[in-house]
Protein 1
Amino acid sequence: MDALIIAAGYGSRLADLSPSKPLTPIAGVPLIEIGVRQAMIAGVTRVVVVTGHRAEMVEAFLADLSQRLAVEIVPVRLADWSTPNGHSVMAGATRCEGNYLLMMADHMFEAEILASLLAQDAPDRGVTLAIDRRLDNPLVDPDDATWVRLDERGFITAIGKTIEPYDAVDCGAFLATPELATAIREAITAGKAGSLSDGMQVLADRGRAATMDIDDAWWMDVDDPRAHTLAEELAPWHLAPMFNGVPG
């Protein structure tokens, strides 16, 4: 299976630490390398990365990383990286074969989360989102989180940063089918800006947006200096395979 990693945005809140958010190091390992490594550990054999801000720098790193890890990495450059993240999904999905593991470049996950997510394919869904029901998780920034509301089956009925009430937080990892990119296009046609959440809501309205509860597994969104400091402390413990033997 392919993985699609979204790495096009500016990352303004980490700009003081690094000129490129995907290349921001965590304990000496760039975020985008952690993303590729964790996808490989989950079973992915090919990685598509959507680039934008500082694309040349990121793509040069990816070329070297591809050789070091002996994995095919396909960069897809977004012409306008200021657009909502759904545009990155649409661009990257054109290079993926069938279903794919969708990840954000600034998210980190214990291996069991992604491996379990890859096993969630079923005909009753167009996408499956990893969710965390621990609403008091201290590693989640409530002001930046994307929340989800669920029905009795655990399928999404609403998704967004401002919805209330909500039942869980979006972890930023998806098992996507080709339906997801189509749903984002439909949302844009209907007048939406084209965020990933816009496409997810289209699928939710059709009863096609499933979830997978990560239970007590560890994950982090590294989006600001506070989260970066925590990640430097915690990630090597929780993600040892991504750091062991890696020069830093």
Protein 2
Amino acid sequence: MQRDLQNLRKSYEKDALLEKNLPVNPFRLFDSWFQEAKESLEIDEANAMSICTLGTDGFPKSRIVLLKEIIQEKFLFYSNYTSEKGSAINAYNKISLHFFWPALERQIIIKCKAEKVTREKSLSYFQSRPRGSQIGAWASNQSTEVISREKLEQQLAYFEQKFKDIEIPLPEFWGGYACQPLSFEFWQGRPNRLHDRICYEHVGNEWEFKRLQP
């Protein structure tokens, strides 16, 4: 397959990211951008983020997960601890989060250290999920090979019957991760590819920012 994509381009002209408008704390800027993304009619899931891990095979890998909470300046998401993603984090807990909101011509890259949340925190979130999602967590041995779609649906049916008319327990292999940011990079598209890139880094007990060339 061959495709010529050289002429696929657009001009970014919706906003600017200037030092005079920057808050001291990057979480304030993140919250401001996130609220705009959440309120945008052109963005379906503002909390969708790409998480990049270093796999046990030595390759980086990205996938989309949903941000579920920001608490004590940590970003929380939930997953199967035995999945490829979970195994990668267990082996090497330095990860990257990436938010991309093309309707706003913005993206944010966040370097983090990830750690498991308490079982109580995982249970609290698990109990808030729809029943179908709870059963799905039990039915899928995430990232392992399955012989067919029918086999997967059989596993779902098994757990639907197993937990019929009872409260679904939190699986031992499932829970949350809290991601502690070490740096933020805010990107705002600008004309002529001279994009605004502002990087915040945590130095001591304070955040410092600098402008990066595009």
